[in-house]
Write a structure and sequence with these properties.
Helix content is 50%, strand content 16%. With 674 residues, it is α+β, with helices and mostly antiparallel strands. The two termini are 31 Å apart.
Length: 674
Amino acid sequence: MTGRLGTWLLAAALAASGALVAQDELGLGKMWTFERPPLAYLQREYGMAPEEAWWNRMRMASLRFGRGCSASFVSAQGLILTNHHCVRDGLAKVQGANDWLRDGFVAKELADEVRVPGLTVQQLVSMKDVTALVEVGAGGDLTIDAAEAVRAANRERILEQARAAEPGLEPQLVKLFHGVTWQLYQYRVFDDVRLVMTPHLQISHFGGDPDNFVFPRYAIDFAFCRAWVDGKPADTTANHFEWGDGPAAGDLVFLTGNPGTTQRLLTKSQLEFQRDVRYPRVREMIDSRLVILREFATKDAEAEKRLRPSILNLENGQKLYRGEHGALRDPAFMARKAAAESAFRLRAGQTGHAPDLSAWDELTKLMREKQALDAPVNFQTAGGLPLLLRALAVLDFAASGDAATAQKARDSDCGADAVQQALFVDHLQRAKKSLPADDPYLAAMLRGQEPAAAAAQLLRDSRLCDATVLESLLKGGKAAIGASKDPALVAARVLAECIEGNTRRQAAVDTRESMLGTRLAMLLFSVYGHDVSPDATFTLRWSDGRVVGYDYNGSQAPWRTVFHGMFARSAEFDGQPPFDLPREWLLAKDRIDMLAPVNFVCTVDSTGGNSGSPLVNKKLELVGLLFDGNIESLANEFLYGERVERSVCVHPQAIVEALRKVYAATRLLREIAR
């Protein structure tokens, strides 16, 4: 937040004096932005009126972690807390012959902390509304494409000016409410991030896939890293959360983090497309890939170690998509969505916006076009096969003659290991089921054969992976490439034509869908003002909620679980995977406080990207670490609720018990002052 926030806070508090009707009517949730917090709502619900310093500290202690997670500073020396599952890929990169992913890692001293190549964390330092700057010159009689070209040029200019004004920061333009508003976010990037401590994989992943998206839960999913600057730990004295004791039942908590995506502004017809077309396709792909990777993992220990992160990610995705798809297939859920949409349309009509209601009907028609495009767009592709990707790069060079494109062809991977080949065969098998029999892509790829035989022949007969052959083609240029009968280039010519046509048609549909979404978002603002929170954009948000259990399966889920339950659950399954406990934990059993909390649930609004998000209390003490949601919460992707929908968090006392009783991490305990 900028120094001008104080004036804006007062104005916003006066303007937002009414009830947040939209949250009840529309199910848009509570993923509030930091530049526009609903102050009247906080005052009414909790009797709170936080000052600017409170907001600034909460924002500056919160981090975007890597490419898809969240985190926070929890000490004055740049110590970072996030989830174990957020550092798994980094662990695999740096563990070498060790198996830190399985066995855990503790850096005894600062010098033992291990830098993770490519890992960064980003701290949001300022926000600015640039909507007017984005829209300069985009009005009048311009066509849709021309107006968007003007906006694109404006956005690039805004970013260039931001980089020049603040060269030490990384700017990002954030599109909210389908482009109704734009924010310029400026980030400080920490690019020296080192691994400090991780527990055993099995303790962070206890219960494995059966317990994923389930509560009661007993997973201590945490990890510590550290931001370094100029060869020493970063100074975060003013921008970190103090370690707290954790919440009690009924406590108010605040979540900060970077939720990835939600689809709450989509219409019912758009969700029906997701239900009937997209989710079945994605679920089939995930299911198939899991079968393939598990088969390879069972054959070879090194392959299992290498494929383990991918398998875990796919297992998580499998259950995630199953739960979200289940919500869309539930008539009661879709009835809730229909009721929310009807309430919006009714209120719009009552407030003089009846002409704008046509956007819903136009989107319904557009979804039929989108459905027809889905299979060609998603199956007429290279299927991840490196050989075809190189062939496409060679064809790009033939068209452009650009030296950089030629180098791209040289640098591209080629060939295919057994796993890549198996995944490509699976892609062809699914394409054969989804595309018509006379499809040109299938004709070019299969050549009258079954997918496995066709893939094997393509890899066997093509010589494009031979560096000498590649250089000869690049030297010969357009003529040599055009004359080549290499089977990979023959297939790629058809593929490139398909991709070009599909990209053009998809872009036209996407543009129309985006325009209609913007129309509805503008209508939303006209009717409800700023009493609504925008869909998630993997940018920093905050949410409020209470720590509370819920009814389930004819019984009750408690607000928290304890260590007694974790050891009991392991015993009930005879210590067999995925309910086994590491040897070090079994040896520490008599030292662990069996009544110490392990996990808890609350009603904060979260989704993918919030993994590693801190939960804090009014004093901005860290009282939890979000790592999951229950299965019921997956419906929040499309329509927020808090009847039984819960976010699942690690209790800080569980982390302290682990550090003290199992890992002897005294240096860390001293740093967080426990």
